């Protein structure tokens, strides 16, 4: 066979007057695929990103897990939330007469990757601090609601354990306050006043923004400075590379999430309409 | 010891031996000598709370000597030996099981009947499926989480 002269499409594209994608004959589906993914997706869906630890990565398993996560999101709505948001979770509980139990609290931490993603809610019930960890993709979880969508100044709020109870007391009858679509997530600038020492952790050694001045003797701050991150460490590119997912992988995963999210959103609105219709009956 | 000698060996000591005490967070396990908070309204429990001398575990009725939710322990309260059920723990728990800010117990008599008649704090819901004497404690609770 004679050798064919092959021209790559990218090469042809250079000589076109207009882009092929804008041509009316190109199907709409292909055009929408090129949509840009919102930049905040990696903060809204952090559990979809793979483990930055390279030894633990397995691309097949990651993909299968993500498929299961999309399927779960078709069944229940998992809303957007952050550390500091007030949330309500209902789980199936065979021990209670109503067969379900509801807990309301402030999200003090979230983490986990893939199907093992979790968040921790804290509340003070009858004067006693209670914390419950929930797995986001647990099949016994019946509903997850975000009652107040907001962020706090820190990545975790474990210091609420050493704060007066009023900082973590929330009524179980709290009603959801929706925020208008498209607005930025409000950041609550509340600074917590901690109880005097002893504490569960050495909070002065952590770079916490959401606590008031601790007024400790100078020796505590001296020790904290010794253990603090060295000034050059935050510019350590290799450290950043190892502890984060690179931009290419993030983009690939988030593109997939963006595409699958449309079907999930459609399903959620259908279910919400159905619920309203049922209530009217 | 001569101050110069101390100064000369100090860097060696720092580099070889780390600190002689642990700085890791404790496991919050309930073993012998663990201090517990009595959460029923028995006069004994109230006295322990007011005096600031909390009940201490002096024996754990499990095979491994570590007690957790729903286990029976023997405690020393105000100079008396009493049995008690653990109804809330500080230790990290699995998903859906509540973790409390204090280690809570409910005092019982030797025959398994609770001493008080009211529990002032919420109890974890999973205790309701336990069998045995702890079922006598459950009706005293006014709230489950």
Automatic annotation (TrEMBL), chain A:
Any Gene Ontology CC annotation: mitochondrial large ribosomal subunit
Alphabetical UniProt keywords: Mitochondrion, Ribonucleoprotein, Ribosomal protein, Transit peptide
Species, as recorded: Lottia gigantea (Giant owl limpet)
Protein name per UniProt: Large ribosomal subunit protein bL19m
InterPro entries attached to this UniProt entry: Ribosomal_bL19, Ribosomal_bL19_sf, Translation_prot_SH3-like_sf
Broad class of the protein's primary localization: mitochondrion
One MF term in the entry's GO annotations: structural constituent of ribosome
Subcellular location: Mitochondrion
PANTHER family for the chain: LARGE RIBOSOMAL SUBUNIT PROTEIN BL19M, RIBOSOMAL PROTEIN L19
One GO process term, biological-process aspect: translation
UniProtKB/TrEMBL annotation, chain B:
Entry keywords, A to Z: Mitochondrion, Ribonucleoprotein, Ribosomal protein, Transit peptide
Claim: Mitochondrion is one of the keywords in the record: yes
Top-level taxon of the source organism: Eukaryota
InterPro entries named in the record: Ribosomal_uL14, Ribosomal_uL14_sf
Gene Ontology terms for molecular function: structural constituent of ribosome
GO cellular component: mitochondrial inner membrane; ribonucleoprotein complex; ribosome
Pfam families xref list: Ribosomal_L14 (PF00238)
Subcellular location: Mitochondrion
BP-aspect Gene Ontology terms: translation
Main location: mitochondrion
SMART domains: Ribosomal_L14
Protein family according to the UniProt entry: Belongs to the universal ribosomal protein uL14 family.
Protein name, per record: Large ribosomal subunit protein uL14m
Highest classification ranks of the organism: Eukaryota, Metazoa, Spiralia, Lophotrochozoa, Mollusca
